[in-house]
What does this fold into?
Amino acid sequence: MLLALALAGCATSPKPIGLASVVQAVGDLPSPTSADYTRPTRDFYLGPGDKVAIDVFGVPELQRTAQVDGSGRLSFPLIGQVDVAGRTPAEVSATIAERLRGEYVKNPQVTLNLEESLNQTITVDGQVVKPGMYPVSGTMTLQRAVAVAGGPSELAKLDDVLIRRQVGDQTYIGIYNLRAIRRGNYADPEIYPSDVIMVGDSEQRRLFRDLLQVAPLLTTPIILLLQNNN
It folds into this structure.
């Protein structure tokens, strides 16, 4: 497996926060406004194993909980199988409503809510208090993901936090300094479903030892592209 440096300090990497970005150097932090609590969250996409609650307004007979099967479909009364994998709940709700409309329900209003997901999860491993798989709902960042796993353990190396991500047929590794993020040296990166986070993992540290010695990650993370020899 060859390591190729794909991005390092480029426009797509989080930028350092300079003095020009500081609006108020002293005093209390400003209070959030109502807009800060109504920002749009990231859509999530249904996948095999997800459990959803479906409700057709005014038709209690059609209210039920269903699970997406291994082929990415779920069964619903009157209309049979519905393809849902890779689609948002809003898209699936619209499909169910369209197939019910007219013949079965005059003007169906369908809502679909995710109750349990095996698809929208991340893995947090290494030197954290509670390693494991955790659900992702809305927007999550690296700091929040580590906190969900109980926070770093006493032996954690905060300058050695890896995010492994699969994009298409490519595997990327992001190397971050959590201490620098906490200090505001650069932005807290967003975490996506299926990401694997490793905190202070000694095996991974040996793998990237030379690179970590050259770049201390104080002002920007390093993004690596992992390639397989064919």
